[in-house]
Amino acid sequence: MTHTVLQIGSISDYIDPKLAQTFRLLKWWEQPQPDALLAAEGANITGIATNAPVGVPPALFDRLPALKVISSRGVGLDKIDLARAQARGIQVAGSFGVLNGCVADLAMALLLDTARRVAAADRYVRSGQWAQRRYPLTTRVHGKKLGIVGLGQIGTLIARRAAGFDMEIAYTSRHARIDAPYRYFESVPALARWCDFLVVVVPGGADTRHLISREVLDALGPEGTLVNIARGSVVDEAALTEALVDRRIAGAGLDVYEHEPHVPDALLALDNVVLSPHAGSATRETRTAMDDLVVDNLRAYYEHGKVLTPATA
Ligand code: 8YV
Description:
By secondary structure, the protein is of the alpha/beta class. The protein folds into two domains: 4-98 and 285-304, 3-Layer(aba) Sandwich (Rossmann fold), CATH 3.40.50; 100-275, 3-Layer(aba) Sandwich (Rossmann fold). It contains twelve helices and twelve strands. The strands form two sheets. It has a seven-stranded parallel sheet, sandwiched between helices. α1 packs parallel to α12 (284-304) and α8 (188-194) runs parallel beside α9 (214-220). The mean pLDDT is 97.
């Protein structure tokens, strides 16, 4: 049986063709008249292929009465109305289990770069300044205190990596985890007051919007560093920028931003922030695995009635 799948936006040069070869694929982003497509095909579309940044436009839920499965590349599903999908019995799949290591690696890279200023040192040498003066001292990482906001699968891998740097590890989550050998703090401000490096790993969405507030940044303090590899919405970006400009925190390492790919000029101008282009999962190996899961989840649903890596609402 041929299944009609609506692809919301281009995902990658690797997986776009595979989706077209595997399903009766309709490309939403190429439609000159989207309404005409929905009028003609809305009743036939049973699957959606998308990715984390794009998600599923809410209006589409009402126009696709036969929709049964959504397969997204990525683990951040804040652009998909999971409650609405669950209410309609629509299965939602993400790239769970294949990107955790890469995102945890980048979190440590950003932490190390904000402290030891590796990229800044490279620029310093290339600019010829080293011949003029000694490179400024930076900040030690090993033995320092790491606070993890959100001890899920990625947060747990960050903790394991940090243990390799002899860091003292604590976390905050909605609930303490009995299986976690780390100190638990009831609140983000309390964790921020305790730690030297605060790494943010919670899901995006309304529940975590601006979780890292001015209050949290002030608790982190002038010796503290923030690392965000979660979602830009989790951090009050204006408050962060002010704290960095005023040196009320020491620095930040960011992979995500409130209005990607726009990064405020004020952040671009600062030398105490490391800026990464939402590249947590962006390695060849991991992106290939994530892309394959987009197809494999759809195929598993159509063949066996269940996706391989389901989202939990
Ligand atoms: C990428 C991400 O943006 O997985 C996520 O939720 O944010 C990143 O890995 C995404 O996978 C791109 O499709």
